[in-house]
Write a structure and sequence with these properties.
This protein is of the alpha/beta class. It is built from 14 helices and 13 strands. The protein has a 7-stranded mixed β-sheet with strand order 2-8-7-6-5-3-4, sandwiched between helices. The protein has a 4-stranded antiparallel β-sheet with strand order 9-10-13-12. Helix 6 packs parallel to helix 7. The radius of gyration is 21 Å and the shape is globular.
């Protein structure tokens, strides 16, 4: 009889598909040279953090007494930090958060795991839409819930609202959205959010209890076209919770800093926020990194140089569609979703691998005939990869 938890063993003994490819890329680079490996697997920002981040760090180190700087903050984060972020949220989005609506976290993963732990009772179900970030299933099930994945429109990859209306039953505790979306780059515009909010409000009233809208927003600032905006869900739906990370906007994935924000208009706001605090306590997520709490407060709303990602997006999208590939136009994030030629994403990725093109098949994202291409890479890598994509396209034409 094994003395350890077999579910945890399963998670720890096998990496996610993305991480497997990432590790393979590092190994392959030692064999043939990094310049000959075209790794499009992982969403690791390739643009440096804005100068304001280093300036904030220097200022904080200089002005804050060391014991205070490196000491504990309040469990939910420093009050001054939360007050500054709340004030900026009001300025940017028109939603009047207070410090007591915010809980500072160790990045988006902690924000989500805390939120699911806070909301979930035995038998609770959460709904999300394919394509979706694979770790959602891990986070929900670890909290004791069930994740149901519903389809999106086959062309736009926006939610299928007919499927959602059928899927909303009294056992559903919440609906989880991710916009801009990983892996597709699709943005849920105002009409989509309004339709979603109206449906959730109707069903909440029908069931006599709130259905929470959980918005996972690590890519919120990463949009590239003047006519593209990411609606603030709190303005459209009262029982909403935002999970945010500074990993992508400020290019700080290794520093693990983010927050959970509870809508101040939520019907059970006080109880939900207390449950968020309790979940953070039970999971050991108390007092997010103190230095980077302060950095986040100084740099909230800023971004790294998004023009690089826009250039990469435009180059890759045009290059692949010119070669005859079908792609969903990515309004945001730094991923492109490509329809697998031949309809089999696993085979497509295997064929691409022969040309040292390392892509992620969409099976783990809930879309087995799609492939994710992360374009947060040096622009030169895309330029050098396009002739290899051409060879891949020609290979499929010969089949």
């Amino acid at each position: 009889m094994k003395t350890y938890n077999e579910t945890m063993y399963g998670l720890g003994s096998k990496r996610s598909t993305i991480r497997e490819i990432f590790e393979y890329a590092k190994l392959r680079s030692t064999e043939i040279g990094k310049e000959n490996v075209f790794d499009f697997s992982i969403g690791n920002p390739s643009v440096p953090a804005p100068k304001a981040v280093n300036e904030a760090i220097e200022k904080i180190l200089k002005e804050t007494p060391p014991v205070e700087l490196h000491g504990y903050t309040s469990a939910q984060g420093g009050k001054d930090v939360r007050e500054r972020i709340a004030a900026n949220y009001l300025k940017r989005f028109g939603v009047e958060l207070s410090a007591d609506d915010l809980y500072m976290t160790c990045g988006a993963a902690a924000s989500l795991t805390i939120t699911f732990k806070a909301l979930t009772n035995v038998g609770d179900e959460f709904i999300t839409f394919a394509p979706f970030f694979p770790e959602y299933k891990v986070f929900v099930e670890n909290a004791g819930g069930k994740l149901t994945v519903l389809p999106s429109d086959a062309t736009t990859l926006l939610p299928d609202f007919k499927a959602l209306e059928r899927g909303l039953t009294p056992s559903v505790k919440g609906v989880l959205i991710n916009s801009p979306n990983n892996p597709s780059g699709v943005v849920y515009g105002e009409n989509t959010v309004q339709t979603l909010a109206a449906l959730l409000k109707k069903k909440s009233e029908e069931f006599g209890k709130p259905i929470y809208l959980i918005s996972d927003e690590p890519y919120r600032e990463l949009v590239y076209d003047a006519d593209t905006t990411v609606p603030c869900v709190m303005k459209y739906y009262e029982d909403s919770i935002v999970c945010y990370s500074y990993s992508k906007s400020l290019s700080l994935p290794g520093e693990r800093i983010g927050y959970v924000a509870v809508n101040p208009q939520a019907s059970e706001r006080t109880g939900v926020y207390a449950a968020i605090c309790g979940a953070g306590r039970s999971l050991g997520f108390v007092c997010a990194p103190a230095l980077f709490q302060r950095v986040a407060a100084e740099c909230d709303g800023m971004t790294s140089d998004l023009s690089v990602y826009k250039r990469n997006r435009d180059l890759l999208y045009k290059g692949l569609t010119d070669l005859g590939f079908t792609c969903v136009y990515p309004d945001g994030a730094f991923y492109l979703f490509l329809k697998a030629a031949g309809g089999d994403a696993v085979e497509f990725c295997a064929r691409a691998k022969k040309y040292e093109l390392l892509l992620v098949n969409g099976e783990d994202f809930g879309c087995k005939d799609w492939v994710r291409v992360a374009y947060c890479v040096p622009t030169e890598q895309i330029e050098r990869a396009l002739p290899l994509f051409q060879k891949l396209a020609e290979e499929y034409k010969r089949i």
